[in-house]
Design a protein that fits this description.
With 253 residues, the chain is an alpha/beta fold. It is 48% helix and 15% strand. The chain has two domains: 186 residues, 2-enoyl-CoA Hydratase, Chain A, domain 1 (Alpha-Beta Complex); 45 residues, no CATH class. The chain binds coenzyme A (COA).
Length: 253
C-alpha cells in the first residue's frame, strides 16, 4: 500500500496515514487503502497520521478535476468506506494529532472512539471551499453533538480545538500519549468477549440512511456550481475566494 503503513500486533491493526504531503490530504486511493487494510473485521483498528497531522481533509487539488457525476462517485465511494468502518464488527479508534479537518474529521467520526493530542484541531471547512461535506460528516457530526451545534460548526466552517471537542462529546479523551492510549484501549477490547463487543457496536451505532443518501447527492450537485470552482481555485492559488452568494436557481427552483 502506497499511502498508508500497516502494523499488526495480536488482534490490533494500526493504520498510519502516510501521504507525501505532510498534512495527509486524502485522495480516493488512500481512503480505499484504509478500508482494504481494515477488511478483516476481527481486528481492532487504530487509525492515526504518520506525518504532521491526522489529515487536513480531502485532497483539494483533486477537486479541480471533478464534474457533478465524478463528484457524486467520489462521495459514494467515500461513504462506502466510512460506512464499512462504522459497520464492521470490531471497533476502530482514531488517534488524532495536528489537524482532523473535512474528510479527515469525517474519517475520525466514522471511527468508534476518538483519542486526541491536546494540540489538535477539528472542523468541517467545506463551505469555505464552496462545497459541503461528502463522506457522511453532516450526519455523523449531528449524531455526535446534536443538530444545533452541528449546524453551527458546519455552516460556519469553524475550527475547534481538542478541549472544545472533548466538551462537545466528539472526543473520548485527550492525552499527550494519544497513540499509546489508543493502543491500551485496543488491548482492553482484545480481552473482552467478541460477541458482546460486536453486538454493542452494532446496536449503539445505528444511522438514518435517508439523510446520508441526500448528502451524497448534494455533494455531487455542488460541482455544478461556480462557487465550487472558485473555492478550489482560490485554495490552490492561496487567495481568499470571492463567492457568489445569491440564490442558485438551477439547484433551488
Ligand atoms: N488538500 C490538498 N493539499 C492540502 C490540504 C488539502 N486538504 N491541506 C493542506 N494542504 C497542503 C497545502 O496546499 C500546502 O501545500 P504546499 O506546501 O505545497 O503549499 C501544505 O499542505 C501545507 O499547508 P499550509 O496551508 O501551508 O499549512 P498551514 O499550517 O498554514 O495551514 C491548514 C494548515 C490545515 C489550516 C490549511 O492547510 C488548510 O486550511 N487546509 C485545508 C483544510 C480543508 O479545507 N480541508 C477540507 C477539504 S474538503
Amino acid at each position: 500500500m502506497k499511502n498508508i503503513i500497516v502494523e499488526k500486533e495480536g488482534r490490533i491493526l494500526k493504520v498510519l496515514i502516510n501521504r507525501e504531503k505532510k498534512l495527509n490530504p486524502l485522495d480516493m486511493e488512500t481512503i480505499e487503502e484504509i478500508g482494504e487494510a481494515l477488511k478483516d473485521e476481527s481486528y481492532i483498528g487504530i487509525i492515526a497520521g504518520n506525518n504532521k497531522a491526522f489529515s487536513a481533509g480531502a485532497d483539494i487539488n483533486a477537486f479541480l478535476g471533478l464534474d457533478p457525476a465524478t463528484a457524486f462517485d467520489f462521495a459514494r465511494r467515500g461513504h462506502e468506506v466510512m460506512d464499512f468502518i462504522e459497520e464492521r464488527q470490531m471497533p476502530v479508534i482514531a488517534a488524532i494529532h495536528g489537524f482532523a479537518l473535512g474528510g479527515g474529521f469525517e474519517l475520525a467520526m466514522a471511527c468508534d472512539l476518538r483519542i486526541s493530542h491536546p494540540d489538535a484541531y477539528f472542523g468541517l471547512p467545506e463551505i469555505t471551499l464552496g462545497i459541503i461535506p461528502g463522506f457522511g460528516g453532516t450526519q455523523r457530526l449531528r449524531r455526535l453533538v446534536g443538530e444545533n451545534k452541528a449546524f453551527e460548526l458546519a455552516s460556519l466552517g469553524s475550527r475547534i480545538d481538542s478541549r472544545t471537542a472533548l466538551q462537545l462529546g466528539i472526543l473520548s479523551e485527550i492525552s499527550e500519549k494519544y497513540l499509546e492510549r489508543a493502543g491500551e484501549i485496543g488491548k482492553k477490547y482484545e480481552s473482552l468477549p467478541y460477541e458482546s463487543l460486536a453486538y454493542i457496536k452494532e446496536l449503539t451505532r445505528n444511522k438514518d440512511q435517508d439523510l446520508f443518501g441526500r448528502e451524497k447527492e448534494y455533494f455531487g450537485n455542488m460541482f455544478k456550481t461556480a462557487n465550487q470552482k472558485e473555492g478550489a481555485s482560490a485554495f490552490v492559488e492561496k487567495r481568499t475566494p470571492a463567492f457568489n452568494s445569491s440564490i442558485n436557481k438551477n439547484l433551488f427552483e
